[in-house]
Design goal:
- By secondary structure, the protein is an alpha/beta fold.
- It has one domain: Rossmann fold.
- Helices cover 40% and strands 15% of the residues.
- The protein contains four helices and three strands, in the order αβαβαβα.
- The protein has a three-stranded parallel β-sheet with strand order 1-2-3, with helices on both faces.
- Helix 2 links the parallel strand 1 and strand 2.
C-alpha cells in the first residue's frame, strides 16, 4: 500500500485526498482517512469535477462527504472552470505550510 511510501516522507504534513464529487465515500477513502488519522497526518478532501453538478448537487455532495468522512476540510473544485482551486491552495499554505519547520531525522552515529 501507499503507507510505506508516506511513512518515509519526513516533510509530509498532510494528505489531500482527491476524489470525484459524483462518487460517494467508500472503503478506499476510509482506509486513507484512517491511515492519516492513525499517523497524525492532517487531511483534507478535494472533490473534483464539480462543474458536472448543478448547484443543489454540489451542496449535497459537499455535505454528504463531510458527514460520511468525518473530515472537516472538504473542498469542491473544477479544473475546467478553475473553481475552488485557489481555496485549496490558500488552505494548504495557511494551515500546513506557512508555519511548518523542517526537522531533519536524527543522524545515525558511525563511531569507529
Amino acid at each position: 500500500m501507499i503507507s510505506a511510501y508516506l511513512m518515509r516522507r519526513p516533510n509530509l504534513v498532510g494528505v489531500l485526498l482527491v476524489m470525484d464529487s459524483r462518487r460517494s465515500w467508500d472503503e478506499e477513502e476510509e482506509q486513507m482517512r484512517a491511515f492519516a488519522s492513525e499517523y497524525g497526518f492532517k487531511i483534507a478532501v478535494v472533490l473534483t469535477k464539480s462543474d458536472k453538478l448543478n448547484q443543489s448537487e454540489r451542496v449535497k455532495s459537499l455535505k454528504t462527504i463531510q458527514q460520511q468522512s468525518d473530515v472537516e476540510d472538504v473542498f469542491l473544485t473544477s479544473n475546467t472552470k478553475l473553481d475552488g482551486i485557489q481555496d485549496v491552495e490558500n488552505f494548504v499554505y495557511i494551515n500546513w505550510v506557512k508555519d511548518w519547520k523542517y526537522e531533519p531525522p536524527p543522524q545515525e552515529s558511525h563511531d569507529e
